[in-house]
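User: I'm curious whether this sequence folds into something compact or stays loose and floppy. Could you predict its structure so I can see for myself?
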Amino acid sequence: MKKILIGLAALILGLVVLVALQPSDFRVERSATLRSTTAHHNFMEKAFCLVMNGKKMVGDDMERALGQMKSVLETGKSAS
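Assistant: Here's the prediction. I'll summarize afterward.
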């Protein structure tokens, strides 16, 4: 038990020395870059998006394609 306490004290002393030797302006900096697509639409494109429903236009095709992708991923065979 005495050896464990001496080892723990030595570890704590080592950490104190390590912290004391750090420069006073020591800082940890993190940064993150988020990338996204940008789109600039003219007036007609914006009006089209307000009037038309994109899901109605391509919804059935999208559902069929997603179903095919699922079957390909699950079975490993082509869904033609």
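Summary: The CA atoms of residues 45 and 51 lie 10 Å apart. The longest helix spans residues 54-75.
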